[in-house]
Design a protein that fits this description.
- This protein is about 30% helix and about 20% strand.
- By secondary structure, the protein is α/β, with parallel strands linked by helices.
- The chain has 2 domains: about 5-120 and about 260-274, Rossmann fold, CATH 3.40.50; about 135-255, Glycogen Phosphorylase B (Rossmann fold, 3-Layer(aba) Sandwich), CATH 3.40.50.2000.
């Protein structure tokens, strides 16, 4: 019997080993599903094994993994984390896994082999009967592009939780000055899930990004408020939901962005290249 494909996922981040034990999102769950049938493992800010069949790095378009391409016979993919800027670098990958239709369309326009693949851990981010005592919730690192200052006027009706980035002190201070309820730190996923469960609304003022927050909120059956009209990536899911005609955000997630569907789309992209 032919051995299963050896797939390695590479997390290009110096804090990967520290964060991995408490990390819980759609990608983590999807790779766990894949590992049931394939020899699939994670490399946490480490170079992959030389005998891999397929390597997928998780990074932006400036991925440093491209420097080591010549050392591997394996096919190569990338989970693209942000808006692509280094298209020359992306040309070195056999396939680009795109989180949104916005990024997918841009990659295809550049002639790159791209596929839509994204989702959330719908089994973990599941609503319950908790009392909805938080009117507005925003889980996000404090940083200028996350724009907590834009919604700080909500005062104590708003709860913001997350780490403070080196450039994020003004965003945090805007919340403090307006009596926003804040909690600072990197929290286990169970705590973030509890916040979601207690929230009436999830509000996202970020300039761009926050796609994971959108899907997590929808998995909790909350339709998030993406307040910045320029955040096309985050808003794209809301447009898809509106067009779907489905009755609830969670139903939309289960049909289109579940962890199982994410795993299927990752494998579809891998098999396309083999």
């Amino acid at each position: 019997m032919k051995p299963p494909l050896k797939i390695q996922f590479v997390w290009e981040w110096d804090k990967a080993k520290e964060i991995y034990p408490n990390w819980r999102d759609g990608l983590r769950k999807a790779t766990e599903i894949i590992s049931k049938d394939y020899n699939a493992t994670w490399k946490l800010n480490e170079v992959p094994d030389s005998d891999c069949d397929f390597i997928i790095t998780w990074c932006d378009s400036n991925s440093q993994f491209s420097r080591f391409f010549s050392a591997y016979r394996a096919k190569r993919g990338i989970f693209l984390t942000t808006h692509p800027t280094n298209y020359h670098n992306l040309q070195g990958f056999d396939i680009i896994f795109c989180e949104t239709s916005v990024i997918y369309d841009e990659c295809r326009m550049r002639g790159l082999n791209a596929i839509r693949a994204f989702g959330t851990d719908d089994e973990f981010f599941m609503p319950d009967n908790s009392q909805k005592e938080i009117e507005y919730f925003y889980p996000s690192t404090f940083s200028p592009w996350k724009r907590q200052s834009e919604i700080a006027h909500l005062g104590s009706r708003l709860t913001c939780v997350g780490t403070i980035q080196p450039d994020g002190q003004e965003e945090y201070q805007a919340c403090v000055n307006n009596a926003v309820i804040t909690e600072v730190g990197y929290f286990p996923p169970e705590k973030i899930r509890d916040y979601y469960r207690k929230s009436q609304n999830v509000i996202i003022p970020a300039i761009h990004g926050s796609e994971r927050t959108v899907l997590e909120a929808m998995s909790m059956d909350i339709l998030p408020l993406v307040t910045n009209p320029e955040n096309k990536r985050a808003r794209s899911y809301l447009t898809e939901f509106k067009k779907s005609g489905l009755s609830s955000p969670r139903e939309f997630i289960l049909k289109n962005y579940s962890a199982k569907q994410y795993a299927k789309d990752i494998l579809k992209g891998i098999k396309r290249c083999m």
